Structure prediction request, 183 residues.
Amino acid sequence: MGIIKTDFVGLYIYEPRVFKDDRGYFFESYNANVWKAEGIEHNFVQDNESRSQYGTIRGLHYQVPPFAQTKLVRVTKGKVLDVVVDLRQDQPTYGKQFSIVLSNKNKKQFLIPKGFAHGFVALSKVAVFSYKCDNFYNKESEGGINPLDPNLAIDWRVPQEGMIVSEKDRENPIFGEHKAFAQ
Prediction:
């Protein structure tokens, strides 16, 4: 339990310590000191939440500087497959993807640093997705990659006929033709 490093610089999984008894459970969903002890500090300024039905794919979204965002994401109801694609051209993981299942049962969280395109798909009948951001949303800084990009070939774990993708996300460019993320 605790903070787990991935092979991607700055990308972490957090498994909180959950205290369960016959009344239910308790856990700290966020404690800045836990992250600070690992040398990770962010000043989160905005919390967001979405509700999605099974098969809904949201993403792949990102913000370019100066409005780029680090996100700490989790699921409070249901289950999602959370996916990121590294857009940082100076990293050996550029263009590679990482995915993790987040659910209200496993209580895992995912810290996604600036420079990643992010998306998720609802794998349960209903999923409530919640996240913190360290910068405010800015429409002009918005970027996106088509989540169905055949070059990325993301396995969304949902049959194609069950996928629900917004027209806006379907119209986003494929990887390589997307708005560049320059740090």
Remarks:
- The chain is about 5% helix and 40% strand.
